[in-house]
Amino acid sequence: MHVSIFMIAKIAVLSSSRRRAIAACTALMAMSNAHLYKRVINAVNFSDLKLSQSHSKQDLADKSIPFFLLWGGPILVLLSLNFFRLPLAWVTVIMSASFAWMGIGCAINAHRCHRRHCYYASPILLFGAVLTLLVGFAIVDLGADGLIYVSWGTFAAVLLTFLPEKVLGKYKS
After folding, report:
1. For residues 18 and 40, what is the distance between their CA atoms, to the nearest angstrom?
2. How many whole angstroms separate alpha carbon 46 and alpha carbon 126?
3. Against a cut of 0.85, is the pTM above it?
4. Using one digit for the tens of pLDDT, what is the confidence trace for 149-165?
């Protein structure tokens, strides 16, 4: 029962005005113990509530079709490369184009909504696209598994860019 109340309160706090959020937390306090109330307050940063509502309307990652076109599609293309026997030159160009496409998508999203993750992920993805070309066409030698190192390294670095959002907030002011 505590988990479902916590989830309902968090949804109410994130999707409503500050006054409604305070009312939801007050009602939650009346329904449950102080420990659960403290978890709800710690889970929501009230100072970012108004800012995130204005920026989230412009965030392409929050909309399903733009998300699929800018990031989901290229990730599916990258994953599908594992199932086809293509020449190395084709794999290199497809991988590089996918990373560049996602990097440009992050740059556009960072410009539109100031999402913190996109500010950091865009240059990483674009660097991954260039490094993919350099390794794939043997300008830089990373061994037989060089493209694998570049792709996993790029994805790992991009995943790490979500951490500042947890600490500093989803959007820059």
Report:
1. 14
2. 34
3. no
4. 999 999 999 999 999 88
